[in-house]
Amino acid sequence: MANIPATPAAAAVATGHRVSPSPRSSPCLPRRKAMLPSIGAAAGPPSWSSRGAAAVARAATGSDKAAAARTIINPNNVPVLSFSEVAERLDTFQASGARNQNYMAMYSSIFGGITKDPSAMVIPIDDHMVHRGHGVFDTAAIMDGHLYELEQHLDRFLRSALMAKIPLPFDRSTIRSILIQTVSASNCTQGSLRYWLSVGPGDFQLSSSGCANPALYAVVIESPSLQVPAGCKVVTSSIPIKSPHFAVMKSVNYLPNALTKVEGEENGAFTSIWLDDEGFVAEGSNMNVGFVTADKELLMPCFDKILSGCTAKRVLTLAEQLVADGRLSGIISRNVSVQEGKSADEMMLIGSGILVKPVVQWDDQIIGSGQEGPIAQALYGLILEDMRSGPPSVRIRIPY
Ligand SMILES: Cc1ncc(COP(=O)(O)O)c(C=O)c1O
């Protein structure tokens, strides 16, 4: 067990980390000024805050949100700010509309609590997850006030932490409880929960031996209910795939994944598809891939060199209903060649962000009829139904 600071103030002082800066009162945390009277070397321009905020408010109502952020940045006159001035500027940045999503609550083991103030949702810059990528993460969907497949995602989260040699700041049931409390505090009934384990802050070395406080962070993001996914195009990725050792763990090193997604978008596609070192179909940027063969088999690449997707595994179970009613002849995981994939009756992307998304074109090859396939649509329906009314093994009710 790590040595967690006993109080939020202790954590804040130890890390130089903002606790509760907002002029809006936070229900969770006391005002910062009361705790930290003298952080910061010099005051910035005394009237910056009101001038800046007014300028930002004007800019944010216009079409160019970036103009709002620019009002904070004057590279010719960089101020030295106190903690409270930084806090004000973080509020101004937040108010500028620079963020595209609604962050409803964040937990941090560094400040030992939950904040609902998006400006306060920050982590220490000396956290090795920030400067060395020494962290792992996972997610879970929030649907109708329930967390979907939290246990399954938690299993993978803890497996990833073990592989990444990250000591747990808390045991599994405490982590689970913190995650549920964070969603509860957020009042979010539709969205997603994202969470991270990091070797924690301490220094800027490569070794984590100086990190005494492995950290848990979690954030709740509101999102509208899912749309029925339209068929999409994918392309073959030219970005090198991660080696199996790193592909099977969900570390924060997602640069290859991000570049693979960008490459797809640059080519008019939804994402790119990786092939493995032997040229077989591997996975998408942040999703698994499935096919329906001409013999009506549901076919997926094995999980030994790629991330074992919680959604894909659940789809494999739910698909048994389609075998039972004759729409599928079987379900199989094995190597899939590019040629076999491109000549499949159906192709689909599978992941917790998209559920099941039909693919209608891969590179220049039209897949099947070129329309969303019936099996992909049926599997989407089954997983959506499972999210709404599946068994307790996949649905945890949030006590709001
Ligand atoms: C590389 C990769 N593969 C597959 C998946 C799908 O996993 P899940 O269904 O658990 O979201 C993800 C999801 O984040 C991913 O990042």
TrEMBL record:
Q: Which cofactor does it need?
A: pyridoxal 5'-phosphate
Range of residues in the leader sequence:
none
Q: Which domain of life is it from?
A: Eukaryota
Q: Which keywords does this Swiss-Prot/TrEMBL entry list?
A: Pyridoxal phosphate
List GO molecular-function terms, semicolon-separated.
catalytic activity
Tell me its family: Belongs to the class-IV pyridoxal-phosphate-dependent aminotransferase family.
Tell me what this protein is called: Uncharacterized protein
